[in-house]
Amino acid sequence: MKKKNIACIILAAGRGERMKSDIPKVLHPICGRPMLMFVLDLVEDLKIKKVIVVLGHQHTEVRKFLKPGIKVVIQKRLLGTADAVKVAQAALGNFKGTILVLYADNPLLKKETIKQLLKHHRENNLDATLLTAKLERPRGYGRILRDKYASICGIAEEKDADDFQKDIKEVNTGIICFNKDKLYDSFRYIKPNNRKKEYYLTDSISVFYKKGYTIDGVKLLDINEALGINSRQDLAKANKIMQRRINEELMKEGVTIVDPDSTFIGYGAKIGKDTIIYPFTVIGSDVKIGKRCQVGPFAHLRGASVIENDVVVGNFLEIVRSKISSKTLAKHFGYIGDSRIGYQVNIGAGTVTANFDGLNKNITVIKDKAFIGSDTVLIAPVKIGKRARTGAGAVVAKNKNVPDGVTVVGVPARPLKK
Question: pTM of the predicted model, to two decimals?
Answer without folding.
Answer: 0.91
